[in-house]
Write a structure and sequence with these properties.
This protein has helices at residues 4-14, 18-34, 47-53, 72-89, 155-168, 174-185, 192-199, 208-217, 220-227, 239-254; strands at residues 43-46, 64-68, 92-97, 103-109, 118-125, 133-136, 150-153. It is an alpha+beta fold. It folds into two domains: 4-153, Nuclear Transport Factor 2, Chain: A (Roll); 156-254. It has a five-stranded mixed sheet with strand order 1-2-5-4-3. Strands 6-7 form a two-stranded antiparallel sheet. Strand 3 and strand 4 form a beta hairpin. The N and C termini lie far apart (49 Å). The relative contact order is 0.14. The mean pLDDT is 96.
Length: 256
Amino acid sequence: MITKEQVHILSKKYKINESVILREYLQLFFLNEFYSEKESQNIFFKGGTALRLIYGSPRFSKDLDFTVEMGEKTFNKFISTLFKKIEKKETITFKPRKTLIGKTFLLKSKSILFSNETYINLDFSFREKILEPEKSIINTNYPILFTSYIYNLSKNEILAEKIRALLTRKITKGRDIYDIWYLLNQNADIDNKLINKKLKYYNLKLNKNNILKTLKNFSKKDFILDLRPFVPINERDKLGELFEYIKNYLDKKFKF
């Protein structure tokens, strides 16, 4: 288990609240245990936390998202065994949560370091196949040594899913806009074919005008409120300025 001193040092290093550091440690701890198991080679890490831990995004994240390429019966047996194994090692519990699609579990940790409990949603999707699977190595300053590959989506495929989220969510998230900007700055490609494969599940096709309309209608206030807990403390007062920059950047990217 990470020590209080280590949490304090990492909090100063990353200029973020200590509770966020503890949550990220637990994310890394879970991933290390998860991908140490052979069965996890058919389960692919994705989303904002994958951007943070694999692709170096400066934005901290909250949940762990995966796409599963195995039958639900096999998955249920695997995940049940894994949860029991982890619960014996750390003060962590897992509880299933009701969901309409896929499977979601709540990871809960009651640490002796802090009075509040730490929560992480584990979201597993079964609805589609991975199009660009990759495997990666995680290097971290946290007291965790990874000895197994992480199986994950490529930058291009995460970008395609982020664009899909931007077009299909009932409530737009500033985090999606930030992540799209970050991925494009990391040379991810706007692959129309890949994006349309992702949109096919919703019976939609890529329409860049709809992206531009969503960006235009999204407010600076909502962007700041959504991003503020997930960026370094010294960057929070600059979020309004960053929002204007990102909007102009994406406006140019999606007009061509």
